[in-house]
Structure to design on (175 residues):
């Protein structure tokens, strides 16, 4: 019996090795940053295009804490997108933080889509706004506690939702 018990104790240290193998390596963190950055850049382009389509060229001076007018909302959306992209360009890769920046860019694109939709509420504009919402939600899920920016499945869903949002924005004539 003691030999059997001894064998069990010798096999116990294998669990930490498995955990170490499951952690994100620096190369993987860089690849994740590139993926999150690409999604954030795409969302930022949707933000710019939706604002342009709505005829709202944001004035940086229009950024205010609680925007009520379309120009101020557009300025805030563009600033949020720019801030997200700037944050992704700084520091060492951090998949959780990088995913949050991509989520912030997607959220800004929802605001811009709402502005564009209000300028011409047709079926395609409604679909583009809905797709922007789905992309933002998927980006939020990928950045959330379950994925922390590292989940391949959640990142793939966010990438697919972003691609669908781009397609919907194009169909609406925003891009």
């Amino acid at each position: 019996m003691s030999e059997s018990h001894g064998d069990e104790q010798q096999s116990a240290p294998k669990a930490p090795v498995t955990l170490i193998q499951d952690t994100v390596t620096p190369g993987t963190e860089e690849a994740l940053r590139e993926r999150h950055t690409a999604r954030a850049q795409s969302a930022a382009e949707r933000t710019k295009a939706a604002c342009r389509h709505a005829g709202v060229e944001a004035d940086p001076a229009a950024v205010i804490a609680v925007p009520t007018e379309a120009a101020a909302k557009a300025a805030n959306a563009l600033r949020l997108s720019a801030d997200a992209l700037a944050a992704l360009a700084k520091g060492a890769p951090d998949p959780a933080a990088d995913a949050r920046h991509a989520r912030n860019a997607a959220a800004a694109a929802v605001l811009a889509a709402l502005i564009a939709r209000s300028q011409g509420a047709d079926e395609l504009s409604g679909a583009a706004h809905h797709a922007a919402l789905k992309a933002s939600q998927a980006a939020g899920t990928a950045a959330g506690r379950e994925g922390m920016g590292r989940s391949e499945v959640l990142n793939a869903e966010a990438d697919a939702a972003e691609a669908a949002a781009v397609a919907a924005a194009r169909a609406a004539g925003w891009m």
